[in-house]
Amino acid sequence: MGKICQGSLKVFHMNINDWQVLANSPLGKLLENNNQAFWVCSADLSQIVYTSPTYEKIFGRQMTNFNEGAKSFLDAIYTEDKQRIDIALQSLIQGTQLDEEYRIVRPDGQVRWIHNRAFASLDISGNIQYITGIAEDVNDRKVASLNLVADKEKYLQLFDNLDVVFWVSDSSVSECYYISPGYEKIWGRSCAEIYANPKSFGESVHPDDRERVFTACFGEDNCGIEQEYRIIRPDGEVRWVRQRTKALLNENGQLYRQVGTAEDITDKKMIELALKQSEQRFQQFANNVDIVFWVCEPDASKFYYINPGYEKIWGKSCEDIYQNPRSFIESVYPDDLERIIAAATGPNACNMDEEYRIIRPDGAVRWVRDQTFPVYDEQGNLFRMAGIAFDITERKQAETMLVQSSEQYRQLAENIGHVSWLITPDASQVLYISPNYEQVWGKSCASLYENSLSFIESILPEDKPKVFAAVEKDSTQMNVEYRIVRPNGTVRWIHARTYPIQDSSGNTFRVVGIAEDITLRKQAEEETLIALQRARELSDAKSNFIANTSHEIRTPLATIQSSIDMLQHYKDQLAEDKKEKHFQKIEAAVRRITQIVQDILLLSEAEANALQFQPCSTDIAKLCSDAIAMVVSFTDTQRNVELFISENAVNQAPVIDAKLVTYIITNLLDNALKYSNEDSKVKFSVDFTQNQLTFVVKDKGIGINNEDLPYIFDSFYRANNIGNIGGTGLGLAIVKQCVDLHKGEITVNSDIANGTTFTVTLPLSH
């Protein structure tokens, strides 16, 4: 800055034209490309001698009248700041320095924050010759700073209401200054314990994780950590948490505070388990394709999976990536390295789509296309990063050949699966379009030669803005995905890219393009997302099943315990009939627990395809009566089940699996009684023909919503309108398995608040 001021002193007496000459000098070019506005005024601020071009960018106006002097600055100052800056300018005239931040109002009405620094330059006699200054737009920083202060209280309120733990402590974690109520929700312990003893959280850490956690939290390098570990709540429940800690440094660079967050990631860990269970099926696919799939941390610091396709394309072992996640950078071709590092570490790293070269250990150079995709958890937080890479060497070689020779280009383009074209830079003329255009777009190549922009007519209306934006940004280097509608009405996904062809002077004289039909890939991505969602739903359903089953078992256990206590303590005082009643309660509770266990075992056998079908001649009337008696004893109800057996079914002994049919009847009757009012009856009818056996269970209960009907036979699924009514979610799944083993059919007809009817039809073998 001192050198700039001295140079200005020499030219102070220059006229305006002389300053324009200076603007074309190396110094002027420097000022033009600077983000700061440089200005020079007379000693009394009455005349502006020079302003750099950046002045217009910052103030939104041109300096046309240099004789206005400081008035031009003051006119732009925000009203509330004008007096303060006027005083500062008066002091500047007296020989002091100006260093102020204030607001200006641009001609378009926009208010922005400016940082202006100025000082007087003196001659050898101490007289002010001129005043120089630098103005800088600091609006983003200033607004952020002001917002940070204004939102402090909002953040605290937010922390108090989030299911995330936020804390502030001293550098040694010996004193806790703040901890959010989320600690009580996740840890199940009071915040008061942490305030009294900050290190008491360690009592909750799972023994298997304790050494690792203590080393990270209380070691020498206890700042800037991120780790996942298990805790044991006071109720015995084990939860997974992710902890992040950051160091706060004072103005001397010394650690004086620690801030941290912790979140409950138990659900995420359960999803990971579900994904691992399906990994084998995916593995068979991934091991046999020449494509690289991987899953890693968002910052690529750890790889959880990479398929053998990496070894085929990169020529390196997968173990290298697991041990050193950033080792793939070592293979990147030197000319592409800077670009790929910037893409992999930039703000769009999770949505990267790059093509670059790699050097294999054997020296071979290969082209790859590398795409990454973000994976979010149930809360919408970035959870993992997934990626896919293709070997596109052949395609790149083809593109090179296309540029080198039009004839070779044509011959090659007509024999590859993509659509390729060659156009003028302004897209006014199509010089070549490969025949695959007709196959992909469903339109003739002639139509495109006649009208180079006719392909736009096929683009799906909602995708046109995206395509137009890509074209406007740079039509010669476009990379965009969009949908088209073919003349037959089918929708296809297209990935289009364009590349400039330059002459010896560096001017673009042609644009080559490649369009790929990626419909199958898009469908695969959608199916993958659906599978992940289903895995999450299954995890939630199993969690609900565990909770519901626990409740269902605890209830009869409580009945058993209560009756045992009564018999133990009052055996000499209880009458025999009352003793017998308690024994009956114990017996019914044991039967209920036994039934729940049998249901679980039966469903496990069915899912493992181990459930056996053992048909035999069966007295159908007796089977139905025994089933009703069993259900009534389970439900502990006095309500009657009205049994109607047709004349055709009386004294019949069809060949069925009596055990499986009993499961069908008892589960349907149990549900009918459970979801009906106590004063209503359940109707159970049986019909028999020569070819089939039919059961109908009809109740006047709460009914089933239409949106629940497609899922009622899924394991662990429970309808949305059941409220607090107990159940495991296994009954109807078991019924469906038993019906399928008979090669039968089950249908349901339900009306909310008016009841449900299940009809089971079993074909009979002879």
Polypeptide structure, described:
With 766 residues, the protein is of the alpha+beta class. The chain has five domains: 2-141, 2-Layer Sandwich (Beta-Lactamase); 151-264, PAS domain (Beta-Lactamase), CATH 3.30.450; 270-391, Beta-Lactamase, CATH 3.30.450.20; 396-517, PAS domain (Beta-Lactamase); 549-763, 2-Layer Sandwich (Heat Shock Protein 90), CATH 3.30.565.10. 41% of the residues lie in helices and 25% in strands. It has 26 helices and 27 strands. The strands form six sheets. A five-stranded antiparallel β-sheet has the order 2-1-5-4-3, sandwiched between helices. Strands 7-6-10-9-8 form a five-stranded antiparallel β-sheet, with helices on both faces. A five-stranded antiparallel β-sheet has the order 12-11-15-14-13, with helices on both faces. β1 (37-42) and β2 (48-51) form a beta hairpin. α23 (576-607) packs across α26 (731-741) and α24 packs across α25 (658-674). The chain is extended. Mean pLDDT is 80; it is low at 1-17.
